[in-house]
Amino acid sequence: MNIEDLLRETLSDMAREEQPPPPGRFLHVNGSRSRRRGLVPAAAAAVAVLAIGSTLAVQGLSSRTATPGVLTGQGSGETRAETRITVTVNEGQRLSGVLKDLSTATGKPLKEFERAAEDGEALGLPAYAKGRLEGFAFPATYEISPTSSADEILAAMVTRFNRAAEDGDLVDGARRVGRTPLEILTIASIVQAESAGRRDMPKIAQVIYNRLNHTPEMNLQLDSTVLYGLDKLGIRASNEDLKSRSPYNTYTHRGLPPGPIGNPGADAIEAALKPAAGPWLFFVTTDPKKGITKFAATESEFFELVEEYDRNLGTG
């Protein structure tokens, strides 16, 4: 039996079960909620998430379409299976961008995805998400049936996050480092936004922890959080941006911002849980073209790195 026949047989067997399997460990259905709240998690459970490497195939079990490329017999004739839609959620991508990409790829109105994203409990978000989907639309490549609803698609992404959270021991790991799971995801999202590559992530995570734990207190002073609060894209915040009164302005507000500033991948989450040991309080991407980031423990070292950055850009 080839892989396509095996997947088709698996879907068929699951469709005949009285109740489809739950989509993830953290999904809870509150029977006292409205009809919509009761039905959406059930719809999410009726989505088959088939892990093939890092790719997820998302298809409603009630669909009679077969695996792409397989012919399905119907009466005396045969019809070819529907074409799946492939959507990739990039590591660090903001939720607003994810929803726009889903709307473009599926042809469904953006408003449908925005409305679905607002109902965090129905999507199966863990309680510590506080109802916000930002940070929980897990980066991966998704193959989506055109018949899947916005609720089902987003619920599948949350299901994928829940699985990654369990595999990465997020809840217990957060407890071990003295943080909540939401704080870990917030740190991971900043690490993802600020890192030029995977190798720097544990060090950048340690810079964040060192600043949070510093005596006297230090602000994080990160442009990525400021720009998120202003719904702007870019690398550097302007002087005017730094005057923002947004709670995401870590130049003026102490501690972490209220929540994730994007959707971090597994590497960034791991870095937030297992930061590198070191005294660093600063980091500078001294050579943006080569993606070289260097770290400093003192202000004097920091200013030396800034001078190196200026030289590499030809501004020094």
Report on the structure:
- By secondary structure, the chain is an alpha+beta fold.
- The protein has 2 domains: 3-167, no CATH class; 176-278, no CATH class.
- 40% of the residues lie in helices and 12% in strands.
- The protein has helices spanning 3-15, 35-45, 95-106, 110-118, 150-167, 170-176, 181-194, 201-212, 223-229, 266-273, 299-313; strands at 47-52, 55-60, 71-74, 77-80, 85-88, 141-144, 282-287, 292-296.
- The protein has a 4-stranded mixed sheet. Strands 3-4 form a two-stranded antiparallel ribbon.
- The relative contact order is 0.12.
- Residues 1-80 have low confidence and may be disordered.
Short description:
By secondary structure, the protein is of the alpha+beta class. It has helices at 3-15, 35-45, 95-106, 110-118, 150-167, 170-176, 181-194, 201-212, 223-229, 266-273, 299-313, and strands spanning 47-52, 55-60, 71-74, 77-80, 85-88, 141-144, 282-287, 292-296. 40% of the residues lie in helices and 12% in strands.
Total helices: the number is 11
Which outline best applies?
A: globular
What's the rounded overall pLDDT mean?
81
**What percent of residues adopt helix (DSSP H or I)?**
25-40%
